[in-house]
Structures are given as C-alpha cells and as structure tokens.
Amino acid sequence: MTSPSFPSVPSRVSTYLCELFWQRVRALLLTFDAGWRLRDIRGDAIYYGVDGSNPGQSVQMLRDLFIGLSIDEPQDLPFVELPNGTSAHLHLIPDRDAFHVLLLDAAAERDRQRATQQLGNEQALASQAKSKAIGQLKQIRTELERQHAKLEEAHALKNALIATLSHEFRTPLTSIFGYLQLADRRAHGDASLHEALHAVRRNATYLFTLAENLLEYGRSDGAAPLLNPTPVDLDALAADLDAMFRPLAEEKGLDFRVSLTIDDVEQPVFDEIRLRQILVNLLSNAVRYTRHGEIAAEIVWRGGELSAVVSDTGIGIAAAHRDTVFMPFNRGGHAGRKGAGLGLSIVRRMVDQMRGTLAFESEVGRGSAFRVTLPCGRERAAAHADDAIAPRFWLQGRSILVADDDTDIAHLLEALLGDLGFRVRVVGDAQSAVVEAIAGRPDVLLIDVELSGLSGNAAVYKLRSRGYKGRIVTLSATATSEAREAALRAGADHYLTKPLNVEQFVHVMQQAASAGWNGGGDGSVGA
Amino acid sequence: MNAVAHKLCMLGDFGVGKTSLVARFVHSTFSEKYLTTVGVKVDSKEVALPGRAPMKLVVWDIAGRSQLDSLNMTYLRGASALLLVADGTRERSLHAALNLLMQSRTLLPDATIALAVNKLDLVEQWEVAPAALAELRRSLPVHETSARSGAGVEAAFADIATRLAQ
Questions:
Q1: Cα–Cα distance measured from residue B28 to residue B24, given in angstroms and rounded to the nearest whole number
Q2: Local confidence pLDDT in tens for the 527 residues of chain A
C-alpha cells in the first residue's frame, strides 16, 4: 500500500493540522499485542465509554466487534454504535506483531444520516400504508356493492315470502272463523258444543294474532317498512273487530262495545293490514287481561286523522312497568299471564311506521286505556328479514378443544358443547391451545380471540402456519366485519360473536365437526 | 471461563423491528417509537444452553435494507449466524428478507439461518398468509415473533444458539 503524499507544509502547520484533526475526530487509539492484550491507549477514552483505568470490559467489547475477522489485515467498520450510544468509525490497523484499533467519532454524521434516512423510511412506510388503505377501501366498496345486491335480492324474496305467508295464514283462518260462526248458529241448545266452539274460536283468534305478530316481528327494526296504503272501509273493520272479539268478551261475562264515528267526508287511506293489527293487538290484550267489567273500542275518523281508544277495566299496568311495556317479549305489566309478549311492541312499531302517536293511561286493578292517532297518508319504506335459524344437530363423540381465559364462559361452553355430545377439553391460554391442538388433533378447536397474552388470532395463525388442518372456530366480543375478516385471514374457518346465539352456535359446531380434518394433507404438523 | 462468542447478524428491510427484537432479547425492553438504525449497533447476550457451556451471542443489528450493499457486506463478514427479519403486516418485507438471504449466501454459505416474522401482536393486519410460512418452514426455521409482547423472541434466538452449538 502506498502512502498518500501530502503537500510540503511548514512543520508548525503540520502539527497544527494534526492537532486539529485529532481534536475534531475525537480519536481514540488502542494498541494491542497479537493476543488482544492492551499495550497502550491514547485519546478520548471516556467519550467512547472506555474505562482507561479498567479497560478489561471495553477490550472485550472491542474484541467482540472483530469476531471472525483477521487481525492481520486492515479492517474498516463504519458507523458502529457503541454500547454507550455513541457512534464510531472503527479501524483495525496491523502493525508487525501488534495491531491498533482506531476509533473516530461518527456521531454527528450518524445523526445527520439518521435524520434523512428516518424521513425517507417514514415516508415509504406511510406510502405503503396509504396504498394498503386504498386497496382495502376498494375491497370494501366492492363488498358493499355485492352486499347491496344480495340485500336487494333477499329483500325481494322476503317480501314475497311474507306476502305468501300472510295470505296462506289468513285464507284458512278466514275459513275457520266463518265455519265456527256457522257451526255456532247450528248448535242450538247444545251447551257443551257451544263451549267447545268458543274454545276453538278463542284459540284460533290467538293463533291469528300471534301469526300476524310474528310475521311483523320478522321484519327488521333497522330498515323503514314498506307501507301499503289503500282506502279503508271503517264500517267493515269495526264489524270485523266486533265479530272477532265480542264472543270472546261475552264468554268471560264482559260488556263489549265497538263504536265508530265518521266526521270526515274523505275516505280514510291507511295500510289496512297494519291498522287492523294495531286494533286486534290492543283488543286481544284487553280481552286477555280483563276479568270483570267492560271493554270498549272507540274509533273516530275526523280531520284527516284516525283516533282509536281501546279501554278496559282489567288488571292494569304498574307504574314500574310503564317504560318497558312496549318492549318485545316483555310481559312485566301482566306478569304471569300467557302470550308471547309481542303485541304491544308491534303496536308501537306499527304506529311509529305510520307516523302516528301512541299513549296509554293505566291504574293497577282499575284498567287501562290505549289511545292511538294515525294521520292519513301514503308512506313507503323498506324492511329486511332476519337470518334463517339453522337446524340443531347432535354431535355424539366428537372432540373439541376450547380455549378461553374467562372461567365462566369456559364453563358455559363446556356445558353447551357437552350437551351437544362433544368430548370437551378446556385450556386457558393460546399457547396451550397451540400445543394441545397439535398433540390432540381435536375435531374442532374453539378459541376466544381476546385472550390475554398471545391472542386467539395469533394462535390460529401459528397453527395454520405449521400446516394444521383441523377445523377452527373463533369466538369474539367484536361484532364487526373487520374483526371477522381478520380472524378468517389468520386461518379460522368460522367466526362467532358474543353474546352467543345458541342456534347459530350449534349450527356452526355441526358444520365444523362434520368437516373434520378434510382440509387436505395428512394433517401432521410440527410444533 | 469465557463463553464462546458467535457473531449473529440481523438482516431485513427497514421498519421490520430488528432493533426492537434485539432490545427485547438483550434488555427486555420495547419502545413504540420508530428510530431508524444507521450503520450497525452491536449488543451481546450470554445464552444458557441445556447440557452445554453458555454461549455469547454478539448481535449485529444492521441498518434495514431490501438489498445488500457493500457496507452491509462489510458488516456481515465473520458472522456465523443470520436472523432474517420480516414484518408480517408487509408481505414485501418477507420478499426482501428472502432476497437478502440469497445475497448473503455467497458471503456466508455455512451460516446458521432463521427467519423471524415479526409483529405477531398485529396478526389481524398480517399480509403474510399462514400457508406461505408453512411452505417456507420446509426449507428454513421460521419463528413468529412480537418484539412488543416478547412472544417467540427468546425462542428464535435460542433456536439459533442451539444450532450453533451443534
């Protein structure tokens, strides 16, 4: 190697330059013999974290930096960050039977480079994240369009189904009511036959109301309903109500009265099915919960508004239940009485759909009065159907591994799955789930996503990335499509949310257990 | 008796978590702040091996790159092990890690190698599919790690140490 030639300068200048360079680069020079024994140390040792009085540890640190490298050749390691945080350019310079290690300060240069590099890297990361987000947005849009088309199709199917069901229910019930009336008229003097026919009528009325209510309840709360306003014959409606409920009321020894006042020359236009159902539900409740006294329905058509007051002298509704009386499956106001608890909630929903008002007054032991007002109109909206409920299957002898760190939930799952016939094993953390699933190869692994420590998704990923082919169901408290997608991407076959819908849970378990280890390959995996 | 020292180099694209893995392994710490590495940062830790003498791993945390340049080659010289690091949330970082592996093979044909796919705590955002890792496992040891939670970190380094000792 040839030495670089320096211009000839006065020795004072040369000395000055040397001092200046030494000072600027904060040089530290260590001289070692061939066995890494320190012979000499010169320069700013403290700056590099080298303890000049006890250099053993620092020598070891420097020695580590040259592991695997020859000390017989010059070595140059730029930008080495030392344990004390400073950065140095490291040079190893062989010198006959010894060698020197020279450290030159690189901190300022390192900081400059870091600032530039940091900015560049952060921009690149942000750009990648942006591209990813745009891609995801496109996917979401496509998915939304697909879901929208699917919903429209489901909506059309649901409407057709409801229309068919309504018709299918009403047709035979109309016939039943008609023949009941006919039979009642012909059963002269036969008290037991009268009694039997009344029982049939009572239960047919209940069935009719329940069927109509369930059909209505089957519509979603989320979407606006499709109203079908048509001219309504109020006289016929009042007569129908009278025919339907008078026998039931009289059978219980109650006075029954339906009155109709028409003060408007315009023909009323309403969704007749809903109007009828509102009045049927209110009257049905009144008959059901009144033992003595009377039931009255007063219908008034005046000024483009229909008002109806259904009053009774029944058991009444306690003040404590006033706020919940319109909630579905609530029978608090009439505790211990039969009925699905849907009637008043459906009245509330229908009145809202028709943009009307609903109020009631009630006193325990004295009776209740429900007042409905409905503006005449032609409102239109939409609704959609709930998912179909899957059938129940039993899964005798199948094995399942449950991973949940919530003891109560784990016990619940164990009991539910045991009832279904599964052989259940429970573990409390994700890592154990990975180990046990690989070792035990259960038919199904049911794992909570939100496990403490390693998450359920991470465990699923680890299993799949080791070639695990068994069925995996994840259970999560997060009911979002993003969470579902993430779980499926990690490798789950099914995603269930809490609180559990038992029917859906059973259906999914049946699906998972039936699929078993048919995902391909022999299912052997490495830990 | 001093433990036998081995040089282990961390290689991977920028931002995959090499520095965080070393911090977790050596100091049991983690910082949320991303600070890019310039040049190389050297740390060491003694690893206990069952039935064997302890081993000192001298860990070279090399600045993130998707390609090996001459500077990286300088740092790699003398290494007996490579821990390639990818970020599970960025699939291209896995490609970069595999690319770095191929490039480093010419310089270090006999080095002990493992792949750490980091950020397991963000598994919900991973782009790397489980099937891809299942396939890679056929040719090299793969560890899913999280420098944030510590999951898989000890196991990854212990795996390398164990194979170095054999």
A1: 4
A2: 445 556 788 888 888 988 888 888 899 999 999 989 999 999 888 899 888 777 788 888 889 999 999 999 999 999 999 888 899 999 999 999 999 999 999 999 999 999 999 999 999 989 888 888 888 888 888 888 898 888 888 877 776 676 566 556 666 666 676 677 677 777 777 888 877 887 787 667 767 766 666 666 555 444 444 566 778 889 988 988 888 888 889 888 999 999 999 998 888 888 877 888 899 889 988 998 899 999 999 999 998 899 999 999 999 988 888 877 887 655 555 544 445 466 787 888 889 888 899 999 999 999 999 999 999 864 433 333 333 333 344 567 889 999 998 887 788 788 778 878 889 999 999 999 999 999 999 999 999 998 988 999 999 999 999 999 999 999 887 767 778 889 999 999 999 887 666 667 888 888 888 876 654 333 344 44
Length in residues, chain B: 166
Q: How far is A93 from chain B, CA to nearest CA, in Å? A: 16
ipTM of predicted assembly, 2 dp = 0.87
DSSP collapsed to 3 states, A172-239:
HHHHHHHHHHHHHHHCCCCHHHHHHHHHHHHHHHHHHHHHHHHHHHCECCCCCCCCCEEECCHHHHHH
CATH 3.30.565.10 occupies which residues in chain A? 181-375
DSSP letter string, A370-436 = EEEEEE---------BPPPPPPP---TT-EEEEE-S-HHHHHHHHHHHHHHT-EEEEESSHHHHHHH
- For A107, the token pair is 């901190």
> Which tokens hold the place of A347?
């009245």
Burial of residue A503 (CB within 10 Å: 0-12, 13-18, 19+) is middle
For residue A271, which of A345, A166, A370, A375 has the smallest C-alpha distance?
Answer: A375
d(CA A262, CA A308): 12
Q: Does domain A399-515 have CATH number 2.60.40.230?
A: no
CATH 3.40.50.2300: which residues of chain A? Answer: 399-515
Chain A residues inside the 8 Å CB shell of B34: 118, 121-122, 125
Q: Where in chain A is the domain with CATH 3.40.1840.10?
A: 11-105
3-state secondary structure chain B: CCCEEEEEEEEECCCCCHHHHHHHHHHCCCCCCCCCCCCEEEEEEEECCCCCCCEEEEEEEECCCCCCCHHHHHHHCCCCEEEEEEECCCHHHHHHHHHHHHHHHHHCCCCEEEEEEECHHHHHHCCCCHHHHHHHCCCCCEEECCCCCCCCHHHHHHHHHHHHHC
C-beta separation of B19 from B13 below 8 A = no
Backbone phi and psi for residue A229, each to the nearest 5 degrees, phi listed first: -75, 130
Looking at the structure, give the CATH architecture of the domain made up of residues A181-375.
2-Layer Sandwich (3.30)
Q: How far is A116 from chain B (nearest CA, A)?
A: 10
Chain A residues whose beta carbon lies within 8 Å of the beta carbon of residue B78: 66-69
A483, B71: Cβ pair inside 8 Å?
no
Per CB-CB distance under 8 Å, the chain A contacts of B40 are: 77, 79-81
Architecture of the A11-105 domain: 3-Layer(aba) Sandwich (3.40)
Domain B4-165 has CATH 3.40.50.300: yes
Using a CB–CB cutoff of 8 Å, tell me whether B107 touches chain A: no
Cβ of residue B41 closer than 8 Å to a chain A Cβ: yes
DSSP code string of A429-441: SHHHHHHHHHHH-
